[in-house]
Amino acid sequence: MTEPTCFKLSIEDNVAHIVLNRPEAFNAMPRAFWNELPALVNDINDNARARVIVISSTGKHFSAGMDISVFTDGESITTSGGDQYSRAEAFRQFVLTLQGTFNCLDNARMPVIAAIQGGCIGAGVDMTSACDIRYATEDAFFQIAEINIGMTADVGTFPRLCKLIPEGWVRELAYAGRRLPAAKAKEIGLVNEVFPTHEAMLAHAMDLAAEIASKAPVAVAGSKRMINYARDHSIADGLDYIATWQAGMFSPPHMMEAFAAKAQKRDPDFPDLAPLRKKM
Known about the structure:
By secondary structure, the protein is of the alpha/beta class. It folds into two domains: 7-213, 2-enoyl-CoA Hydratase, Chain A, domain 1 (Alpha-Beta Complex), CATH 3.90.226; 217-263, Lyase 2-enoyl-coa Hydratase, Chain  A, domain 2. The chain has helices at 31-46, 69-72, 84-107, 123-129, 157-164, 167-176, 182-187, 198-213, 217-232, 235-249, 252-263; strands spanning 7-12, 15-20, 52-56, 112-116, 119-121, 133-137, 141-143, 179-181, 193-195. The strands form two sheets. The chain has a six-stranded mixed beta sheet, with helices on both faces. It is globular and about 65 Å long.
């Protein structure tokens, strides 16, 4: 994998730390971003390189959202060949590709923790709503800014945000383009905690990541899969699915290791997730 231009990556003690690294551009998301993020996350996921992913940012703002260059660099997706309907179909595929960039966070076998400072705007909301856990600094705010430029948010905000906060808040933010301050975001359940500084927030996020990384990875992966499935299905379907999961993934050796470690007052030693087989 080539060196990313929009991110820094470090992996230590089973925790992968992905850092948005374009502070001079308020971490706006150019074309490279949309290719680099899934490449990083899928590499971590497919090769079981970590047990938890933390995503943080640099500078004043977490992200100013999608960079306009996504639409203006090179041949525009909105004006390329074909008739009106062919172009519409091609644009739909383009949007699905953008959505896929953040789907990788939802689909990753390991939890993803977002640490958000300053503005989390437009596609930044799409991105963080696809994470498992969100923390914010006191100066953070969330904004569905697409309405302010005459468009409907389309990369993941509505399907996910409607599962995270009351629908009335989603509608207010979507229709008016207002900012949602960190304190209110915590009050309505979008973020778990608010911190006075970026350093305090990141320290807390990394502490949580280390704690999660100490647990049995298969059990953590199963918990994420069950929570996501329950979010998208009925209670009856969720119960049936977890019973099926347990039929194949119930892990007595991992449980015995947890019991032994507790009795012996030591850290447990669990096997990592297995790398995914991508080729025959």
